[in-house]
Amino acid sequence: MSHETLDAGAVQLPAEAIDAIERAATSAHRAAHPHEALFSERAANIKQSAVRDVFDISMRPGLVSLAGGSPYLQSLPLERLAAAAASIIANEGLTALQYGGGQGTEELRTQICEVMAAEGILDAVPQNVVITAGSQSAQDVATKVFCNPGDVVLVENPTYVGALNTFEAYQVEVATVEMDDDGLVPELLEARIAALQTAGKNIKFLYTIPNFNNPSGITLAGERRQRVVDICRNANILVLEDNPYGLLRYKGTPLEPLRAANPADVIYMGSFSKIFAPGLRIGWALVPEHLQRRYYLASESVTLCPPTLNQMLVSAYLSDYDWKGQIETYRGLYAERCTAMLAALDEYMPAGTSWTSPEGGFFVWVTLPAGVDTYPLLQKAIEAGVVFIPGAAFTPSDSPSNKLRLAFSAVPPDAIKEGVRRLAPVLREALAA
Ligand code: PMP
Prior knowledge:
alpha/beta; 4-stranded antiparallel β-sheet; disordered N terminus; PyrdxlP-dep_Trfase_major; PyrdxlP-dep_Trfase
């Protein structure tokens, strides 16, 4: 968003925007067509994503969106990518436009092993990798192959809304484990597992985002990492490690992924969405050998094969372009935006609020005093010209939350400051009420 747009004067509240939020908040707008009776029970559990609704609204001119966590793509070498895409189609078009292997191309799986080596996973080999339509699809496949309706998955509280939607669509029970400033608390994880297993529940996996959790920005401390895996291993529970932001660390020391020292216990999911381009929908799972056959078959049954042209374009990017240098550029850019966000929060936020200070990734998590529900504040924030995501979106129950997520990835520093300045009076009023 340019400075000009920001200064464009009073913000008009788009009536459709409010309608969309209200529609998302209620299921009362159902059409009464007889076909409705044909839906599966599963379909009733597929929720409209609050993030997507707000994402659409936040495209309106005049609004500062601190809602959507889109990566900032302007620094990508578009002309070189255009030439690479043209060359692939001109020279290898019949392969690029054809079906490919269900696991993805060998070339890209080999390169993905190099990307994971940059994260500290040194033993990955191409046959242990399956390429998926974003890591979203890797989560879906994992849930499909491990979970029956009524099974339990453990998640951090809060956690990624897209994963919650997947789990709920498969009629899985989602059990939360609290985090502190150092991430998931091992003792609480252990106690939760014991209580659930004593109650006869079938826990299949822990879904965790150890680096710069979406939405909280919190990182699981190094000294807790092995303990978390050990607790799960002892209870025969898999770990699903989701790490799309790991390479986007701009402060502190890089930490080994959970998968690095635990190849048999962790399914690791990665993605090119945050380090390259989300529109290509290329992610992957690194799967322990004993789980591969069914995992790969299930992945194939969803998409037949990952998109061939897009895989070839990612391969060309990784082999012909300085992708590590590009990640450095991203780190610098997101560090600057994170600093702008934290400075604006310091300057404008009312007493009684607090927020996280991420070492990487895209998000800051703001906490209001207990008892304040941030959901109704969204409408007021839109009226004030700023959009955020209410905390309730990141919990399985959608129960009232005194938290909210602010994303700084896609917004220039001056607009971040302006957005926080607009948000402050909305929160101040809520705190005074
Ligand atoms: N996991 C997390 C934690 C995310 O934040 C996102 C995207 N916002 C995804 C997975 C999905 O990423 P992809 O584009 O690879 O499907």
